[in-house]
Design goal:
about 200 residues, mainly alpha
C-alpha cells in the first residue's frame, strides 16, 4: 500500500489511495473513520517522531531535559524511522545545514534551467496542438478503462461483516419488540387494576 503514495501523483489519485487505505483500516479494525481523520493521525505520528528525533540530537546544556518517549516509540521507529523525508529533515541527517551552500546550489540550478529554456527553439503552434490532442485522447482512453475492483477476499470479509451486523440489528429489534410487548402488558394490567378500584 505504501508504494501507492510514491511518485508524483495528482490530488485525485492521492485522495483515492487514502480512501482505499481508509476502507482497509475499517475492515481490519472494524472502526468507521474518515480518510481525513486517518491522514491527520498519520501526520501527527510523523510529527511526534520528528520532534523526538530532533530532541535526541540536542546536546550540551539541554541534556538535563529528559526526552519523553511514547509508549509506541518502537513501532514508530519500525515504520517511520527508516524512511527519508521526515518534513525537512532526512533520517540520520544533521539538523543544522549550511543554508548559504544550499542557496548557491538552488541559484545555480535555476540559472542552468533558464539557459536551457533560452536555447530551445520556438515551438510550432501546429505541433503543440497535435501534441495537446494526443494527450487529451490518451487521457480519455485511460478514463474509460475500468478501475480495478476490490479483491474478492475483501468483498467476502465485508459481506460477512454486513451479515453479522444485520443479525445483530435483527436481534436488537426483537428485543425491543419484546420490551414493548412487556410494557404494553404491564400497562394493560395497571389500567385494569386502576379501573376496578374506581
Amino acid at each position: 500500500m505504501a508504494s501507492s503514495f510514491n511518485g508524483s501523483r495528482s490530488v485525485a489519485q492521492l485522495s483515492a489511495v487514502w480512501e482505499r487505505l481508509r476502507l482497509k483500516f475499517a475492515l481490519v479494525q472494524a472502526v468507521q473513520i474518515e480518510a481525513a481523520q486517518l491522514k491527520n493521525k498519520y501526520q501527527t505520528l510523523k510529527k511526534e517522531f520528528s520532534t523526538i528525533k530532533l530532541a535526541e540530537s540536542d546536546t550540551g546544556n539541554k541534556t538535563n531535559e529528559p526526552i519523553v518517549y511514547l509508549a509506541y516509540w518502537d513501532l514508530l521507529v519500525q515504520y517511520i524511522g527508516d524512511k527519508s523525508g521526515l518534513g525537512s529533515v532526512n533520517f540520520g541527517q544533521s539538523v543544522h545545514s549550511d543554508s548559504s551552500k544550499r542557496k548557491a546550489e538552488v541559484d545555480a540550478e535555476i540559472e542552468r534551467q533558464r539557459e536551457q529554456r533560452r536555447k530551445k527553439e520556438n515551438v510550432d503552434i501546429g505541433q503543440g496542438l497535435v501534441l495537446l490532442g494526443e494527450n487529451l485522447a490518451k487521457a480519455l482512453v485511460q478514463r474509460q478503462v475500468p478501475q480495478p475492483v476490490l479483491a474478492p477476499t475483501l468483498l467476502a470479509e465485508l459481506a460477512s461483516k454486513q451479515y453479522a451486523m444485520l443479525q445483530l440489528i435483527e436481534s436488537n429489534q426483537q428485543q425491543v419488540a419484546a420490551h414493548i410487548e412487556s410494557a404494553a402488558a404491564v400497562n394493560a394490567a395497571l389500567l385494569s387494576f386502576l379501573s376496578k378500584e374506581h
